[in-house]
Design goal:
This protein has an 8-stranded mixed beta sheet with strand order 4-6-5-10-11-9-7-8, with helices on both faces. The protein has 16 helices and 11 strands. It starts with 12 loop residues before the first helix and ends in a 12-residue tail after the last helix. It is 38% helix and 13% strand. It has a domain at 8-263 and 442-490: Amidase signature (AS) enzymes (Alpha-Beta Complex). With 491 residues, it is α/β, with parallel strands linked by helices. Bound molecules: glutamine. Glutamine (GLN) is lined by residues 132-135, 158, 177-182, 210, 317, 429. The site of glutamine has 14 residues, from β4.
């Protein structure tokens, strides 16, 4: 498939690493080619907040030397980009917010550290919804990102810059974060592969917090094979994150060969109720049939409380964000209001000027649900419902190995289409949020097109079942070519 004659930008991580090892090209040549592509498409796509060309070339030269000396790590010389939510030493980390528009981190996030130690070359930091709050990338202070399949459309969010960059073949792989669907939903809307691992699988150290009990780092790539390569490097215990789990990391690459024969695939009745676009439903059903033809067994499962996941999330996530974002006060770092009259004025105006409308909406909602008198009615109640949703998944996984269904209710929507109606926007994550509330891993893979736009199939597994999800996705990608389709202007 991905061979020698293919243009460098069309090749996957797996194919590029073979090319580097065979001496077909150097990391510097690859890096220069992709940087040129990023520069030329940045004005139309706005996928990046920062392009780190100089640093990338330094890292590429270093990678070429390390390879020549015979010490190449698993990602040696391979280009990647990070969502602008991961702290990067000496490089701007904005979280898509004005309040951090001048923030240069003094240290690297664990994810950034691990990926760099494996030899990867960072080409830049990608655009995102402000503090990862959004499903369309429109809440970014740095402007919306365009979907490479149709530039009038949103690539989804909040990891929209990462998804657009990978879909447009500007870079083979990107990191992202997923608190309620922000890796899987943009992956679905851009025809890419996105995995959110189990909560605690990847260290959150240096990943700016939105909702700490839900946030998890993951990857967006063009194949499950590439996702396995990158996730394998990122995953693992880190004592600096108290929620990081000390659980061995399997060899995800080696696990890819496992067939779906005999795999019990749960199909949730509630996922096909009203709200799901007919064409999307048809593509997902085709994908289920493909898995069945390959020997998987489809089993009906029920998640009776899943309908409560969106309202539950919109109590828990704002509550945690109102607490996490209190650290942005204009005093220690980030945007500071000019000429404050007193300390209160400094706080109020720095935050008032620094945060956008969606972040303010969440901070206010979160403060309200945590306040004395409302805590029991909202926050405590939401935590109880969260428990019920987790239990629903637990019961289902006693009968099945994975749950399969749609990732998002529709294909990509127009930029501006849903901005005036937060509830409609929130419903984008109706199929993804459950996995975050229960801490489960989920992957989205391309499974066809509806009116020319990509549709995503989501697989969710029990805790630490990343290898099963990656293998099932890889097996599906061996049987289908949807993941190989590139948007017309970006081949
Ligand atoms: N779209 C959801 C939200 O706005 C999820 C975001 C995310 O996963 N970071 O909160």
């Amino acid at each position: 498939m991905a061979g020698k004659d293919q243009a460098l930008h069309m090749r996957t991580l797996a194919s590029l690493t073979r090319g580097l090892a065979a001496g077909e090209f150097s990391s510097r040549e690859l890096t220069e080619a992709l940087l040129a592509r990023i520069e030329s498409h940045q004005p139309a796509l706005n996928a990046f907040i920062t392009i780190t060309a100089e640093l990338a070339l330094l890292q590429a030269d270093r990678a070429d030397k390390v390879r020549a000396a015979g010490n190449a790590g698993p990602l040696n010389g391979l280009p990647i980009v990070h969502k602008d939510l991961f702290c990067t030493q000496g490089v701007l980390t904005t979280c898509g917010s004005r309040i951090l528009d001048n923030f240069v981190s003094p240290y690297d996030a664990a994810v950034v550290e691990r990926v760099a130690a494996a030899g990867a070359v960072m080409l830049g930091k990608t655009n995102m919804d402000e503090f990862a709050m959004g499903s369309s990338n429109e809440t970014s202070y740095f402007g919306p990102v365009a979907n490479p399949w149709d530039k009038k459309l949103s690539p989804g969010g909040s990891s929209g810059g990462s998804a657009a960059a990978v879909a447009a073949r500007l870079v083979p792989a990107a990191t992202g974060t997923d608190t309620g669907g922000s890796i899987r939903q943009p992956a679905a809307l851009t025809g890419t592969t996105g995995i959110k691992p189990t909560y605690g699988r990847v260290s959150r150290y240096g990943m700016v917090a939105f909702a700490s009990s839900l946030d998890q780092a993951g990857v967006i790539t063009r194949s499950a094979e590439d996702a396995a390569m990158l996730l394998g490097v990122m995953a693992g215990h880190d004592g600096r994150d108290s929620t990081s789990v000390d659980h061995p990391v399997p060899d995800y690459g080696a696990a890819l060969g496992k067939s779906v024969k005999g795999l019990k695939v749960g199909v949730v009745r509630q996922h096909f109720d009203e709200g799901l676009d007919d064409e999307c439903a048809a593509r997902v059903k085709d994908a289920l049939k493909t898995l069945e033809d390959a020997g998987a067994e489809l089993v009906d499962v029920d998640l009776p409380n899943i309908g409560l996941s969106v309202p539950t999330y919109y109590v828990v996530a704002p509550a945690e964000c109102s607490s996490n974002l209190s650290r942005f006060d204009g005093v220690r770092f980030g945007h500071r209001a000019e000429d404050p009259e007193d300390l209160l004025d400094l706080y109020c105006r720095s935050r008032g000027e620094g945060f956008g409308a969606e972040v303010k909406r969440r901070v206010m909602t979160g403060t309200y649900v945590l306040s004395a008198g409302y805590y029991d009615a909202y926050y405590l109640k939401a935590q109880k419902v969260r428990q019920l949703i987790s239990q629903d998944f637990k019961n289902a996984f006693e009968r099945v190995d994975v749950i399969a269904g749609p990732t998002a209710p529709t294909t990509a929507f127009a930029i501006g289409e849903k901005t005036d109606d937060p509830i409609t926007m929130y419903l984008n994550d109706i199929y993804t949020i459950g996995a975050n509330l229960a801490g489960l891993p989920g992957i989205s893979i391309p499974c066809g097109f509806a009116a020319g736009l990509p549709v995503g199939l989501q697989l969710v597994g029990p805790h630490f079942a990343e290898a099963t999800l990656l293998a099932s996705a890889h097996q599906y990608q061996q049987m289908t070519d949807w993941h190989l389709e590139a948007p017309g202007d970006f081949e």
